[in-house]
Amino acid sequence: MEKNEILLKLNNIDVAYKRVIHVLRNVTLEVPRGNIVALLGPNGAGKTTVLKTISGLLKTEEGEVIKGDVIFEGVVINNFPPDEISNMGIAQVMEGRRVLEHLTVEENLLVGAYSRKDKTSIKSDLEMIYQWFPKLKDMRKRISGYLSGGEQQMLVIGRALMARPKLMLLDEPSLGLAPLVVREIYEIIYRINKEMGMSMLLVEQNARMALEVAHYGYILENGRIVMEGKSDVLKDSEMIKDFYLGISASNRISYKKLKRADQAWML
Prior knowledge:
The chain contains eleven helices and ten strands. It is α/β, with parallel strands linked by helices and 267 residues long. It has a six-stranded mixed sheet with strand order 6-7-8-3-9-10, sandwiched between helices. A four-stranded antiparallel sheet has the order 2-1-4-5, with helices on one face. β9 and β10 (224-230) form a beta hairpin. α3 packs parallel to α6.
């Protein structure tokens, strides 16, 4: 990876739940400031655990880092509580579009700014969110539980932006959405990164879509990073298409075979 300023680094992380279930092994990855980094892999690979390790939510599920360090802006944050990590500038958009269903759209957005005291800036940031997501402005008085899946996904991204994070952790933003809605969500993610310089770690199963917007990608399988590289290289590689982007499991080659192949394309 190009050595831009590194905002976040996971350095040889091992994670276990209840000190018994070993989920991540020797995971090392970096998120340079201003970049989108994609973390890809099948169900059960450990992708969400990586995000919870960064945000501190791992501790709420009896998980812990048993080896290695999570480093954010040069500070080791392994043992920090989630609220302190959030206040440092990390916002996680969790899988499943977890809106506060009984609140209006605007009330949900304002929840994202709960720790901020700058009321004037909060108001201007709310208008900025409405510029990013015009649909939310039209629905600002609507109860959030009645929104469509795509609208709820826009809402949780907007709510995270209201916290003014330095790093956004996005967990499966395409999950359960129609293809046209997925395209719309990813166009907004791309614009937020380009126009705001927002750093993002993006977890996805929709590898093709994620690699279209990301600068760099890692592939996680069985709790280990098995491949990494620039997104255009991963996206265009026939090996990756066979190993990971295959239409069916029968079309995928094993990673052992991949390791024996010529890997000059990897960075």
